[in-house]
Write a structure and sequence with these properties.
- The protein is mainly β.
- It has one domain.
- The protein is 11% helix and 52% strand.
- It has one helix and ten strands; from the N terminus they run αββββββββββ.
- A six-stranded antiparallel sheet has the order 4-3-2-1-10-9, with no helix packed on it. It has a four-stranded antiparallel sheet with strand order 5-6-7-8.
- It is elongated.
């Protein structure tokens, strides 16, 4: 195994370890400045899969922090071949597709992770000091063998590369999920 492969495998293992720990119900309280607010996180991902097929996917996470600090999430992915959506209640450790998932606050950051069949994704939304604006960064972890994930078409795919772009994060008052 080359140095680059070992380094990549180590990074994937570290990513999955972090995911495993943070997929447990959140212990950190949501910042009170975000109570009764919605955090909207979006990005696009270009997926190179199955021997070179390029698939653009739009990703959206709508996170609501209730007036008691509970975290609700709706995550969705959509592309030309379909759409997947999952609603996650506070403390959820699996999404609708059965993937391990976690969402927690760490200081002024909201950290979300999803473990794929092989590989993982993490997004980190970082808030300004007044919790009135945010930025988001998305990273993917993988082993030397690549990433395997069920696509929006419902099929399992071998992913050679995933590249996030167009990351955006915003905050607004209220509950987007109803009363």
């Amino acid at each position: 195994m080359s140095f680059a492969q070992r380094e990549l495998s180590t990074k994937a293992a570290a990513t999955l370890l972090v995911l495993g720990v943070s997929a447990m119900p959140a212990l950190a309280q949501a910042p009170s400045q975000l109570y009764n607010k919605t955090i909207q996180i979006n990005w696009s991902v270009t997926v190179v899969q199955d021997g070179g097929q390029v698939v653009p996917i739009a990703v959206s996470h709508t996170v609501y922090v209730s007036s008691s600090g509970r975290i609700f999430e709706r995550g969705s992915r959509s592309g030309k071949r379909g759409q997947k959506q999952t609603d996650n209640a506070p403390g959820a450790t699996r999404n609708a597709g059965g993937e391990a998932t976690g969402l927690r606050f760490s200081g002024n950051r909201l950290v979300g992770q999803t473990a794929f069949a092989q590989g993982a994704r993490q997004f980190v939304a970082t808030f300004d000091s007044g919790f009135s604006s945010c930025t988001v960064a998305v990273t993917f972890g993988r082993d030397a063998g690549g990433i395997k994930r069920r696509g929006v078409d419902g099929q399992m795919h071998t992913v050679e590369k995933m590249t996030a772009s167009g990351e955006s994060c915003s905050i607004r008052e209220g509950n987007p999920f109803g009363s």
